[in-house]
Each structure stands twice: as C-alpha cells, then as structure tokens.
Amino acid sequence: MVDPSLGDGKVFRVLVADDSCEIRELLFEVLSSIECIVTCVKDGLEALASLQAGVYDLLITDYQMPRLNGLALLRCLQTESCCPPSILITGHNPPDLIEEAKQAGAAFVLLKPIVIPHLLSLVESIR
C-alpha cells in the first residue's frame, strides 16, 4: 500500500471536479500514483459542498461543467475560508479566460489535452 503522506507526515489531499468520468478517472489514477489522497466530484456544486465540508490542499477543476462551472466555483470560493490553491483545466480558450481565472484565484490554467508530466509538475510546485 502506498503511504499518501508527505515527508513530514502530512497527507496531500486533492479535490478533482470534472463532469467527464474519463477525466476524473485519469486524474484519480495519476494523482494517486504520486501519493495524493484524491476525491472526485462531477460538478462545481459538489465541489463547493466538498470544500465546505472537508480540508483539501489542492483543487483541480474543469472550466465547463453543468450547474456551476469552474470559473464560477473559483469566484464563489473567494469569499470562503476553505479555498485551496487551484488549477483550472479547460478545453476552451476564450480570450480573457486565463486572466479571469487568475483574478478568481486560480494558481494555474491548464489547456486540454492534459499533458500529464506538465500537470504533475504543477501539482509538485503547489505541494
């Protein structure tokens, strides 16, 4: 069994919010392989509830999701005390999205298709 704790004994918890089952499964597998505890939800409202109920060290959220998209989720979190560093993933690249995401609190914006080594380097830079 893999020990999900960091060198100092602290567990690194990641919340993944994406409406695509395939992306959730991929991110779960990849992040678990680097010893993260991963929780996956399928939209922004579930992510908001999870963040209000638990403690996470990183949020990875898709931009385009039903009920509450990733950008709206980040904006909601600006008024909450439960806002971890965030990575916004998007397959769309509207002209102002990266700037809007940064203003809403995203540490990074990652364009699809996801390049796994790049994602892992971003996660390690936050860890």
Explain the layout of strands and helices.
Blueprint: E1 13-17, H1 21-33, E2 37-41, H2 44-53, E3 58-62, H3 70-77, E4 86-90, H4 97-103, E5 106-111, H5 116-126
Parallel strand pairs: 1-2, 1-3, 3-4, 4-5
Q: Helicity, in percent?
A: 25-40%
**Separation of the first and last Cα atoms:** 21 Å
Radius of gyration: 14 Å
Major β-sheet strand ordering? 2-1-3-4-5
Count of distinct strands? 5
Strand content: 15-25%
Task: Write the element-wise H/E pattern from the N-terminal end onward.
Answer: EHEHEHEHEH
Q: What profile does the largest beta sheet have? A: 5 strands, parallel
Are there runs of 5+ residues with pLDDT below 50, and where? 1-7
Give a brief rundown of this model.
The protein is built from five helices and five strands. It is α/β, with parallel strands linked by helices and 127 residues long.
Descriptive notes:
This protein has 127 residues and is of the alpha/beta class. The chain has a five-stranded parallel beta sheet with strand order 2-1-3-4-5, with helices on both faces. Helix 4 links the parallel strand 4 and strand 5. Helix 2 runs parallel beside helix 3 (70-77). The longest helix is centred in the first third of the chain and has 13 residues, at 21-33. 39% of the residues lie in helices and 20% in strands. The model is unreliable at 1-7 (pLDDT under 50). The chain has five helices and five strands. It is globular.
